[in-house]
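hey so i finally got around to running the thing on that chain from the lab meeting. sorry it took forever, my laptop kept dying and i had to restart like 3 times. anyway pasting the input first so we r on the same page abt which one it is
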Amino acid sequence: MLKVGMAGIGGISGAHIPVWESMEETELVALCDIRTERLEPYSGKHLYTDFEEMLDAEQLDILDICLPTYLHAEYAIRAMERGIHVICEKPISLKAEDVERVYDTARRNKVKFMVAHVLRFWPEYMLLKELCDSGKYGKLLSGSMSRLGGIPKWSWDNWMADEKRSGLVPYDLHIHDLDFLVYAFGAPKSTQLHRAKRPEQDYMNVVYEYPDCFISTEASWYAAPYPFTASFRFQFEKAILAYEREQCILYEEDGKVTDLTEAAEGDTGGINLPKSDAYANEIRYFTGCVLEDRFPERVKPEELEAVIRILNAL
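ok and heres what got predicted. didnt touch it at all, straight out
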């Protein structure tokens, strides 16, 4: 059984911890956070407020990094230098040069490393890529992707509001959609940015141009308490695939409308959208790579570099 430790018991850890606890192949043995109150609910685990102390005391096989963005690369390197496999929350860093530094450390120490870009494991987005790759409904003509919400006010030391530590909306929200685009279609040939950026809120609209299509994206931290929403709509020659209000619907040119949400009952035309937890999908994939001694190719370093360079250019 693989022994797992986690660094950073913030918001996203709540999506990771239940997955580690549910897997037969892993045991979540240790948690680390400088805030003792975040550790209190996990009295059955080995608890630490010092990262190096946890690494010294535990024989970890895997470290799950859920720390603030600006700490990701450094803490991943510190763990991998000790021979520990690392899965790290997105983004890998705010600096493109850190990608090679992190992956070089993984190669030198013969360990597995992966950035947890969850949309690559999200059923609706996986279906979108499948339809694009297969050409089942013809060429992709256009797309739109949206990721909107209120400005986060809950982060430790208000680090998310500090551009030097979080990168703000581009690196916290928009990176999800951009990473998926680079993964599915490669780097765009050009970009057009509109942004309304103020100290109390941040909104951006970016249009990405590809040789045969364009994709419009938007992301926000509004000052008002706008409820978080994520959606997409992609136009093919013969169909539209839309993921809106947590429903995935396929609209075909012959008038057929198919609800693909969580493998809806009925004729789905051979398209199956299983009900699954994307966070579980990514963690299980990474665990499988560790157990089978194969490097996680689902997330490639050149794609991570491309995403950072695009964001920094914006």
